[in-house]
């Protein structure tokens, strides 16, 4: 991503120089301004590259089968990251949801880099928007923003590693788990199901209970995320 910006600016400098060689001297001021602007963008791109490549080297997990620790896919995916005061767009990275770390690639020399977690503000990946959340009532880390407003709904995506022994060999398996949290009055509450949710949103408990019943919402593992989103969204419309 950053390399593309750098190449673009080098190309612009070449084009500007070529144009100048074919233009009258009256264009000197325009050329000087263009080159200055191009150099500034080039310098900023270099600084941005240095900024995002300041993490520690990441050692790749060696699978014993088809398992992997990454969220949704072990393929490199393009997304956006706000990191260390700068927004990086269309950058290729992976999110390790087992260690809760973002991994990027350095092209030359090639290595994988683990970003400094405290410098990550938020990122988008495969249609999901994650934020770094800090709170006494919440473990620090990246949370998938399902709803943000007066009431917030967040999902903590986790891959837990289980190791077993079979025929003298270690077998590793990742299990995906999601924990849900509701933010109200700057406090986060862990939500396990319908009762916990209605308790937090108790000022409209009757309306929520009727809504859940009329919509036939279920809070089992396969349905809980969809149901939580619908209930919180309905609650916000009552405010």
What does this structure look like?
With 239 residues, this protein is α+β, with helices and mostly antiparallel strands. It folds into 2 domains: 2-52; 56-191, no CATH class. Helices cover 33% and strands 38% of the residues. It contains 5 helices and 11 strands; from the N terminus they run H-H-E-E-E-E-E-E-E-E-E-E-E-H-H-H. It has helices at residues 2-21, 28-52, 194-200, 205-215, 224-238, and strands at residues 56-57, 77-83, 86-96, 101-106, 111-114, 120-125, 128-135, 138-147, 152-166, 169-184, 187-191. It has an 11-stranded antiparallel beta sheet with strand order 1-5-4-3-2-6-7-8-9-10-11. Strand 6 and strand 7 (128-135) form a beta hairpin. The longest helix is centred in the N-terminal third of the chain and has 25 residues, at 28-52. The chain is globular, with a radius of gyration of 24 Å.
SSE map:
Elements (H helix, E strand, L loop, with lengths): L1 H20 L6 H25 L3 E2 L19 E7 L2 E11 L4 E6 L4 E4 L5 E6 L2 E8 L2 E10 L4 E15 L2 E16 L2 E5 L2 H7 L4 H11 L8 H15 L1
Antiparallel strand pairs: 1-5, 2-3, 2-6, 3-4, 4-5, 6-7, 7-8, 8-9, 9-10, 10-11
Helix pairs in contact: 1-2, 4-5
Quick summary:
The chain is of the alpha+beta class and 239 residues long. The protein is 33% helix and 38% strand. It has helices at residues 2-21, 28-52, 194-200, 205-215, 224-238; strands at 56-57, 77-83, 86-96, 101-106, 111-114, 120-125, 128-135, 138-147, 152-166, 169-184, 187-191.
């Amino acid at each position: 991503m950053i390399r593309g910006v750098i190449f673009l600016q080098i190309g612009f400098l070449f084009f500007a120089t070529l144009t100048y060689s074919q233009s009258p001297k009256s264009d000197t001021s325009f050329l000087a301004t263009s080159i200055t602007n191009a150099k500034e963008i080039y310098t900023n791109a270099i600084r941005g590259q240095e900024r995002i490549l300041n993490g520690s080297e990441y050692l790749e997990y060696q699978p014993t089968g088809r398992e992997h620790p990454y969220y949704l896919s072990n393929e490199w995916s393009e997304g956006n990251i706000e990191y260390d005061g700068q927004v990086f767009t269309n950058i290729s990275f992976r999110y390790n949801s087992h260690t809760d770390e973002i991994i990027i690639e350095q092209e030359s020399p090639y290595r994988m880099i683990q970003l400094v977690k405290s410098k990550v503000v938020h990122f988008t990946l495969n249609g999901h928007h994650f934020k770094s959340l800090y709170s006494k009532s919440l473990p620090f880390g990246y949370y998938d923003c399902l709803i943000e407003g007066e009431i917030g709904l967040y999902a903590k995506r986790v891959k837990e590693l289980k190791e077993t022994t079979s025929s003298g060999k270690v077998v590793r398996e990742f299990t995906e788990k999601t924990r849900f949290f509701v933010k109200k009055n700057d406090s986060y509450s862990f939500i396990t199901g319908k009762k916990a949710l209605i308790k937090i949103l108790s000022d409209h408990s009757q309306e929520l209970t009727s809504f859940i019943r009329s919509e036939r919402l279920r809070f089992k593992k396969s349905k809980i995320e969809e149901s939580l989103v619908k209930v919180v969204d309905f609650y916000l419309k009552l405010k």
